Amino acid sequence: MGPLTLMSIFQIIGWLSVIGVVFFLYACVYKNWSYFSDHNITYDRGIPLLGSMWDSLTGSRSFVDSAKRIYDKYPNEKFFGMYDNFGQPGYVIRDPELIKQIAIKDFDSFRNHSFSIPEHCDSLFGRSLFSMTDQRWKDMRTTLSPVFTGSKMRVMFSLIGEVSQRFCTFLKYELVDGSLECDVKDLFSRFSNDAIASAAFGMEINSLKDRSNHFFKTGESLSSMFDGFSSIVKIVTMIAAPKLANILGMKLITEKDAQYCRDIVKSNMEHREKNNIVRNDVIQLLMDVRKGLLTDNTDDVEESGDIGFATVKDQTEQLGNKIQKWEEDDLVAQCMLFFLGGFATVSLTISFIAHALAVYPQVQEQLLDEIKRTEEKLDGKALNYDALQNMKYLDMIVSETMRMWSQGGISERKANKPFDLHDDKGSKITVEVGQAVLFPMHGLHRDAKWFPEPDKFDPERFSDENKGNIVSGTYAPFGLGPRACIASRFALMECKACIYHLVKLYRLEPSSKTQHPIKLKAGVGNTEAEKGFWLRISLRQ
After folding, report:
1. What is residue 59's three-state secondary structure?
2. Alpha-carbon distance 476 to 472, whole Å?
């Protein structure tokens, strides 16, 4: 075969590939281009392939700010249409009552996340509670609920308290002449790393001292899996075309990180079983769950005022049956999800709290007064879970921080049954099976209709006198309904314990590099500050 003939074959293949791409784009985008106009529904068109939230995908706006941008465009609509990646139609739900209806009352029509990675694409993330679907998710959620009750938090608090105290004590060695100017996100990432290592994996680590430990490096790697445009392309491909993702060998979690998680969980369990060791941490609780030793704790009753305003109320009763057969990766996947959620989201939340305390010194002083009163009541005893939960002003600060800069600023669900949406004009549209609905919680949190002066940091919104004015469905930093974050108690406990010990020993102040007001970092990923969290930390007298 001559070179001219061979070149002609390559040209034909090239043109066929172009034609195939054109038909693929048409199938994904243009066939849906008139979907909302045909149904006479207000919608945001966005950009082909990138969808309505194109500015976050192109790196010009943060993910939650992108959702807020389109939320603000339609202030008079209960809901409106939007286009997801690859031009798939979905809905943004603005009305709090409708959000509650979808997330709670009619949950059975929206059981799953629209963002769900199949198990055959990623064996660990696909087995995690977040990514599971339908009955398997129901059974796993029912099985895991007893792990995160208030009584279990009381037992685990000693581990978090020890890590918090050790972290704040060792921080003294980082100071120069009694103070330190730094991006505190790195410090709190190290604290969160050590807290998760202790409370979830039974490992004692000091990441301020051993700054390159393997556990911390794995946390950094796991938390970066959603960063950057290439990660989004990978995720979209795994959701929209899982077979293609399999062929291309795409995975969210690298094999190196997955194997590390498997190794530490397996070796930990084997060591405990061999030596009859019992430790009050997540691995122990999951081992007990797998053996059927953990009950539902029907007597685990808490007063509503003692659990923290942002805490998710468990709504998993009668969801499903207990998981009877646990494979090793089932247990590892839940530990990995705990690792992933705790490493990035908790450290960022603490960073936002620290920033608020630094730029609002009167708030910091009021918190310090509450800490002193708590210390007096403890009378020399170590801080405990109940004493921490009784700190109302600390809870007000955390609740307001999560209103302004929630890590759960967007929630989404996918319809598994047809569902009718009715607007105030008498129109109706049916959400079809497979279509997504989005809850723009960051938009609601920053809406003056629900929170007057929304850009003002004001913990008094959550005082006993004022929190009753907050409209149900407008505040949900951990999500709503049975799909809400299962570990909200743990996350809040971790944040509060760290801030307690930190403010007790140190003064937080703005530095020359502090950005205030904070602008959010552009792109898809966690909610974090554009220029970091630069503060000055000084030792109190």
Report:
1. coil
2. 9
